[in-house]
């Protein structure tokens, strides 16, 4: 089982049904050290599913920064579906959440190489 931290559209039950084929259980959590920015999406399927071309995207922030969101538990197929949903502006990386749980998260592709580790 994989843990995915969502801070945007993957918390939306309608998007979950479109991406995973069902609603997912979400557990509130937060990601320290990051901030939210926005990105314009051009993929028509993603826009149709989410209902908007403006999506949230993570970028490294100050040590005091904290992004609220939720953990989703995904099997291999659901994680692959999430990868397919996220456009090239995002890259999946592993992080440690405020709860201490390790999770995957999608952040700005151009920022992924600046992370420590």
UniProtKB/TrEMBL annotation:
Domain of life: Bacteria
Domain Gamma-glutamylcyclotransferase AIG2-like: 4-110
Signal peptide: none
CDD domains attached to this UniProt entry: GGCT_like
Protein name from the UniProt record: Gamma-glutamylcyclotransferase AIG2-like domain-containing protein
Organism: Gordonia neofelifaecis NRRL B-59395
């Amino acid at each position: 089982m994989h843990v995915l931290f969502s801070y945007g559209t993957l918390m939306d039950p309608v998007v979950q049904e479109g991406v995973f084929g069902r609603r997912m259980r979400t557990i509130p959590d937060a990601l320290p050290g990051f901030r939210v920015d926005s990105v314009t999406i051009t993929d028509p399927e993603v826009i149709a599913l989410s209902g908007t071309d403006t999506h949230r995207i993570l970028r490294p922030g100050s040590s005091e920064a904290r992004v609220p969101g939720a953990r989703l538990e995904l099997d291999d197929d659901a994680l692959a579906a999430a990868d397919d949903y996220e456009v090239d502006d995002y890259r999946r990386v592993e992080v440690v959440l405020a709860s201490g749980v390790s999770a995957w998260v999608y952040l700005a592709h151009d920022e992924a190489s600046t992370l420590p580790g």
